[in-house]
Amino acid sequence: MLYIPGNNPAMIQQAGVYGCDAVLLDLEDAVALNQKDAARILVRNMLQTVNFYETEVCVRVNNFHTPFGLADLEEIVPLQPDNIRFPKTETVADVKEFMKEVRRIEKDYGIKNPTMSIHVMIETAKGVANVYDIAASDSRIDAITIGGQDLTADMGIIKTPDGVGIDYARKRIVMAGKANGLDVLDTIFADVNDDEGLREETEYIKKIGFAGKALINPRQVDIVHEVFNPTENEVRKAYRVYSEFIKNKKAGIGVFAIDGKMIDAPVVQRAITVLEYAKIDLKEIEKNAG
Amino acid sequence: MKNAIGVEIPEYIEGLGKLEPFQGVWSSIIEDEVPVTNISRTLKAKKPHASKLCKNLEEAIKKCKPFDGMTLTCHHHLRGGDGVLMQTIKILDEMGIKDITLASSSLTSAHDGLVSYLEKGMITRIFTSGIRGALGDAISVGKLKYPAVIHSHGGRVRDFLTGRIKPDLSVLAASAADEEGNATGAHGPSAFGSMGYADIDARYSRNVIIVTDNLVDYPCIPSTIRQHFIDYVVKVDSIGDATKIASGTTRITNSPMDLRIARIAATVIEHSGLFKNGMSFQVGAGGASLAVAKFLREDMKRKEIIGSFMIGGVTSYGVDMLNEGLFHSIFDVQSFDAAVSTSVLNNPNHIEISCDQYANPNNCGSMTNKLDVVVLGALEVDVDFNVNVITGASGEIRGASGGHSDTASGANLTVVVCPAFRGRLPIVKDRVHTVVTPGESVDVIVTERGVCVNPSKPNLAAALKKAGLKVVDIRDLKEEVECMTGVPAEKQLGDKIVALVEYRDGTIIDVIYNVENLS
């Protein structure tokens, strides 16, 4: 997910061409206090005019404890971007207050079947402590994300390249997200010139269960995709596992072996995930296996 | 009379003579002997042991007996750092020489000072492959007496060999030379690499002066320019500033947009059917086009592809790819980076070639005809895939034909990379302001918003679609971009022709009219 400052029309206009899965039009930290109004109007207008192609569009509004949060919702919710992000979520009450306003605005505008999902962002120690309950607090939440910069500031530490200070938070947030069936997204990598550092951090967060990463420069897109996208070898193996699974299933066999290794339901599920990442049509495999 | 792309071409222009309209990319190319006039080299003689060394450039020029109406040629290997052409013009002016035809292989920002010589009528004709900066502005508003002729690199050679350009004096900078005029650009304090453009001047000019700031013991090794073509040799304090060879356009870009376009272009190449062992490749200078090399390098490593050769303007990035074994060789007509000179000097697989071998359409060994893939830039493209690399948004002359049309005509795959819009200006037009490379020789235009494939290549379009690339009709892309940018007003141009764009075969592909209000 690529962060785009909400007060930069040129960057918003180009946001959809970089090949990232999602863009986040930011009305919060990227926008100076004296430009909040202008950014809100700009994002509102650009949501209606810019072609973002296949890229999912998320808008990060300001927190309700600022004078801008509610005004942001009033402008953005009627346009129903793919998602809206609520920053610095600390408690279930925060979510409820936020969702109450979202639903009120949707009702005011006659939006009966809202398509917009909610991302909650955990950026304080209190938020980390409450994250399981937050993740489960509303059915429209479909992703949860960690804000590393604010979290380290809240903890009074400096974010180091090894990420040790936020490691517990990362793992706790992943567990909370997974427990509630949510996508879990990692924080930004701030040094846009350190490709290797970005690659290492992305490999790490993939290992511990994150589904994606926030980016601050389009030059970071390919590296993150390279890490998350399955390799040709992984796809080949997953294709074989799923194909054999279909054949065995028809024969009423639940557990089988490939090259001497046991293949059971979790292995099949992982294979399906790889194939989905690789955008391979499962039905096509099922047809061929038949 | 109208040419093959519908441009009205005058039959005759005073000061330049009869013009032939462009008839198509390959219409004048026939096998074997070409039915054009061939100019033989000037025969020269010197008495035994006569010295060619002159005490200064002025003395050397005087010995060449300059005259009003003469043709002066130079090369542009030092690009923005050239210090020789302006010295030469100043001396000729002080000698009272007028009505000069200047035929430098290209003209850069180092030559802004020529404007005053145009204004006073000292220079009345210009033949070159590129005009930029203040000189471009001056010509655009009509300050040159006769229209400038902008040719391709290969076209320049052809113009020499057919007598379209008849050099009376060539003043050639060399970073090392000996007292007989054996010369190179490969070493010395001002090393600039290949002397590929200068080679043709040395061979065909009536008088040739080698100017160097590094006179070495005889013989100068290696010697691109050989002594039997050289009349005089001059040692000067400086031939220019080699550090200005590499401009911002010759380094890998950091721009996310250019990198995105380059990534798509590299993917186009990978799925073109030409991405295989033995592939030959050329990339132009500038933002996205040069960045393609970065991605191609990664793709070649990933797929274990070893190419045959790279050609053209060579950057240190190309040298790195040679050293990594990704290509067997480089054919170098121009080094875009002073650091490349070390490779020219030391690596036998880095082969210096003349512009004749590089791109002359009328020889039987032009390297551009052996080219598989070329990646080129554009200022504008149009719905017929025509490309403009010369005139800017206001109609001003600000670029170079260079090897654009030469390589496009010869390559199996010509990929043009450009953003869909720059600032508020759409790049895809109904008709480009100036056609330099005809759409007939362009296969793919790559933008960040889609890949446009020439309708003459349906199989290529299908292959790229299959590879998951977003292939779009160029007219649809134009419409989409215009929804964002609007349609710019027509440029306000005058009715005076200020430049002719010569296709590589010597025919006229387009004309450039004067700009009335250049802001």
Explain this structure.
The complex is a heterodimer of chains A (290) and B (519). Chain A is an alpha/beta fold and 290 residues long. Chain A has helices at residues 9-14, 36-49, 69-76, 92-108, 125-129, 131-135, 148-155, 167-179, 195-207, 221-228, 232-250, 265-277, 282-289; strands at residues 2-5, 22-26, 56-60, 83-86, 117-122, 141-146, 183-186, 212-213, 256-258, 261-263. The two termini of chain A are 38 Å apart. The model of chain A has no long low-confidence stretch (mean pLDDT 95). Chain B has a ten-stranded mixed sheet with strand order 3-12-11-8-4-5-6-7-26-27, sandwiched between helices. In chain B, strands 16-15-14-13-17-20-24-25 form an eight-stranded mixed sheet, sandwiched between helices. In chain B, helix 9 (316-323) links the parallel strand 14 and strand 15. The longest helix of chain B is centred in the middle third of the chain and has 17 residues, at 287-303. Chains A and B meet through loops of A and helix 7 of B. Chain B: InterPro entries: Citrate_lyase_asu, NagB/RpiA_transferase-like.
Features:
heterodimer; A: 290 residues; alpha/beta; eight-stranded parallel sheet; two-stranded antiparallel sheet; B: 519 residues; Glutaconate Coenzyme A-transferase; 14 helices; 25% helix; transferase (chain B); Citrate_lyase_asu (chain B); Citrate lyase alpha chain (chain B); EC 2.8.3.10 (chain B); citrate CoA-transferase activity (chain B)
The count of helical stretches of chain B stands at: 14
Low-pLDDT regions of chain B: none
* Pair with the biggest interface: A-B, 11 and 10 residues
How large, in whole angstroms, is the Cα Rg of chain A? 21 Å
**What coarse outline of chain B follows from CA principal-axis ratios?**
globular
CATH topology of the largest domain in chain B: Glutaconate Coenzyme A-transferase
What profile does the largest beta sheet of chain B have? 10 strands, mixed
Number of strands of chain B: 27
GO biological process, one term (chain B): acetyl-CoA metabolic process
Subcellular location (chain B): Cytoplasm
EC number (chain B): 2.8.3.10, 4.1.3.6
Protein name (chain B): Citrate lyase alpha chain
